[in-house]
Input
Amino acid sequence: MAKCTAVIDIGSNSMRMAVFQKTSRFAFHIIHEVKSSVRLSENAYKNDGYLQDVPMERTARALGEFLAVAASFGARKILCVATSALRDAPNSDVFIRRIRRELGLSIKVIDGDKEAYYGALACANLLPRLDAVTVDVGGGSSEFALLKEGKVHSLCSLNLGTVRLKELFLDKGDLKGAIRHIDEALASLPAMDADVLIGIGGTYRAITRAMMKQENYPLKKLHAYTTDAEAFTAYCDEVLDASPKKLKALWIKPDRFDTIKPGALILQRIVRHLKTSSLVCSGVGVREGVYLADLLRNSGGMFPANYNPSLRYLLDTYAGHSDHGERCARLSGRLYDLLGETLGLRGRWRSELVMAAKLLPVGLGVRYYAYQRHSHYLVLNALDYGLSHEQIALIAHLQLFKKGHSSSELLPKNGYDKLLPGAAELDALYAILWLSHILLAARGRGEEIVFEYDQNTLIVRGRGLYLAAEQAKNIALPKNITLQITP
Output
């Protein structure tokens, strides 16, 4: 697969491109995104579905500039898919031939089931493992899929979209007709039994972004943000009743004003129809699904077990100088297994501790001085996939451990408390991580270190522990544990 790949998604309302760069076999990150509100389906639904000249012209112009952007990054592969706008239009072949002739770009028109599959595939790989219904409300259609045990099932596409609803009903003031149209479409949806709804697409992200701002949510990540159905539908009610001035006060961006109300109405009716109680925002969708289908084509469409692509990206990019993090992770796991029960960790947060240990060196890839703050920043902002917000916040904040300090002294006063464990658990995790780090002060491998825990004393024996014994004097251990190091 090409190291740098551009994926273009031509929708009814917006056209987007993401440029992906690989850092190793399965690890990648997005190095550029661009969006254009081309409104390709504008006035189409009023004209028997035919694409109109002006929207086609602006879409062609935007595509030409998208390709120029992709070329500037050296993208050797360009994957371009089109969804409802082109699959529904009787004259879509006119536009497709024009783009091939003028730009040399082949557009692949995908059916509704394939669109649903790509969105669900992205969620299955890049969100925490969930049994859920994925819902992607676009301009012309809405796609549904069922996720069970990490696999994609029960694909469905309905002719239910924001632009379609706006032009056919809401522009005419026919709210009752719009609701009837939505409910009739949802009646044909196959049974999808899941308590969680995963929202994909621009409309859902716009509502999520606004809700997070209204809540003053501490972690600035849409991906994996979770809310409950009651709060979401209540916010949709506010949007539906709002004037343009009120929409701005509700944190809705002006470029969404004309489609946010039909989108909110569709989503609200979907939530009520499916009777889900919890909603999760997906920051990934069709573009990531297209990319992953290509990247993982020889792996059954899934990453290897326990593989996290954004963790691997951070290590590839910032920790190539050292395997200290990997060694520290093994030692942290051993100490957790030995001391976790005594420290009141109740079998929780082991995987987060090990991941935090692996990521310790990434700040060194920026600058040695204050490297822990650099690690914290990188993890908080670039550890995106496969983890909940609580996991990301914990892994990032564990990077701030420091000699002789407890967690309460180190945590920034930024409202993260509700995402983190309690102070006692944080202090215990800090202690294990810091102890693992200093036991490897001489940069040994760690396998030769022997632990023994007896009557609240942790006894450490092994070679190359002289520096560790010196540094251990500054460690803030829980009060019920004493440390004895024998160099």
Remarks:
- The chain has a mean pLDDT of 93.
- The two ends are 50 Å apart (CA to CA).
- The first helix runs from residue 53 to 72.
